[in-house]
Design a protein that fits this description.
It is a single chain. A hairpin with a 4-residue loop joins strand 7 and strand 8. The chain is built from 8 helices and 11 strands. It folds into 2 domains: 118 residues, Response regulator (Rossmann fold); 95 residues, Winged helix-like DNA-binding domain superfamily/Winged helix DNA-binding domain (Arc Repressor Mutant, subunit A).
Length: 221
Amino acid sequence: MRILVVEDEENLNNVIVKHLKKQGYSVDSCMDGDEVSYYLDVSEYDAVLLDVMLPGRTGFDILNDMRSKGDNTPVLMLTARDAVEDKVHGLDLGADDYLTKPFSFDELMARIRMITRKNAGKHTNRYEVDDLVIDSGAKTVTRAGENIDLSAKEFALLEMLVMNKGVVLSRENIEEHLWDYDYEGASNMVDVYIRYLRKKIDEGHDNKLIQTVRGQGYVIR
């Protein structure tokens, strides 16, 4: 999944980005409220981590603008302010959750999983397709009861396919969600990682779950 981090404390911003990337997320970040619209206009995100107190526009202003435009991207508000009225105001504006600084990264990751599950209409971290089981919280994958070891990027791609079971995803859509704004790698990386996944997920099984829809993209079903 691709996440936008909006946090004006440079050290905290860098630490959050580093931690999210280590967990396999694609991440863009900025530290100024006036820059956020640019990122939201040119990219599609699975979640936004949004600080309240920012240079330029506040997190409340940004959230209000997003929701007024019909942008329902899950938003987790980050703030050092723990006043009840601030939390109520953010939630009333359409925030999906609120996390007060300082926080543990385990809690941050759990809350990200929660708001993205909610957006996908799920109540647990467990996804199943036939005999394939993926747990987004534990970062585990099994097929027919056998554990499958995946790299962070392989897991992110499989998670995206499984969360959109039955939906054909274009190469462009996959690339936009799994690689950040500054990515300058090979143009066929989606195809490369699909091959990696097929070898690990489908090889040795009669039922091939990862399928190509010619001229459109990839789907798992």
